Amino acid sequence: MEKRYIDILEPDDWHVHLREGSILSTVLPFTYKSFASALIMPNLETPVTNISLAETYYSEICRQIPREIKFTPHMTLYLTSHLSKQQIINVSTHQYIKAIKMYPKGATTNSDSGFSNIIELYPLFEVMEKYGVILSIHGEVTNEKVDVFEREKVFIETILTQIINNFPNLRIVLEHITSADAVNFIKEQKKLAATITNHHLMVNRNIMLSKGIRPNFYCAPILKTEEDRLALVQAAISGNGKFFLGTDSAPHVDSKKVSSCGCAGIFSSPLAIPLLIQLFEDHSSLNKIENFISRNGRAFYGLNQHNERVRYVKRSNPVDAIKNIKTNQGEITVFNPYDELYWEKEN
Hints:
- This protein is α/β, with parallel strands linked by helices and 347 residues long.
- The protein is built from twelve helices and 13 strands.
- Strand 7 (172-174), helix 6 (180-188) and strand 8 (192-196) form a beta-alpha-beta unit.
C-alpha cells in the first residue's frame, strides 16, 4: 500500500536570505514554520561584517519570532580583509555565529564588499583554520571573460583548490553547488562539504531559457545542464554526509525580477520541504531524505541532532500550493516547478 505520510526529524536550512526591514517581517515566518533552524546570510544593504552587526541582526530576527515557535537563527559574518583576527577567535566560541561567508566581489546581491584578491585573506584563513571556524563560500569567479556557465568550475579549479592546498584543515562549505564537476570535487576532499538548493535540484537552464525567458528561475550561480541537475540529485539522495540542504531562498519582488536587469534569486522557503519530499519520492529515496535535510548539516556544523519530528501528509489530490506573497513593495513569486504538488505539513 502506498505510504500516505512521512515522519522526519525537524529539518534545517543551511543557507537562507531573510533580507531586512519589511521584507524580513514578511518572509521570516515561511522559514520558521518550515525549519527548526537556519543559517542566515550576511549580504544585507549594509553587510554584516562584524560580531556587533551580527548580534544586532540576530536580535532583529528574534524579536519577530513568536514565543511558542522553537526556531534558532544561526548567523554568519561577511568576510572582508578588514575583519580582525580577534573577531574570528571570538566567532569560534560564539553562541550563534556559525560561519564566515566569502563572496567574490560582484557575484550576487549586495556583494560589492566581497574579495578581489584572495591572497589578502590568507592571514584570516590561517586563524579560521586554527580555531575551527567554518568558511562558507559563494563559489564563482566574476571575470567577464569567463563564460557564466563555467564560473563555478573555474572557481573550483583556481581559487578553491588554492585555498585547500594552503589551508588543508580549514573546514569549508561550498554553497549552492550547481554542477557535476562540483559534486565530484567535493567527494574527493576531506574538509569540504556543500549545500544544494531546491531549484538546482529541480530545474535546469533549458527550463529557464528554451521556451522564452523565465526570470523567476534566474539565480546566481546560474542553472546548469540536465546532466548537472541529475548529478546534484544523486548527491542529495545518496545520504553522503558531505551534502545537505541550503535553500538559498532569496526573495525579490516581481518588479525587480521581471525587468530590463532582473535580480538573481529564487524565493523557495514556503514549499521547500514538500517539494523535496516529492523529489525524493520520485527517486525512491524517501529513506535518505532525513540525511539531506535534517542530519548532515548539523553533523558538519558540530551541533546536536534534533529529537523532535514533523509529519508531512500526501494528499489524494494536488495541494492548493501558495503561489506568491504580498509585501508593501510588491508581490514575490514562490518557487514551484511542479505542475502538481501532493505533500503538505500536517497541522
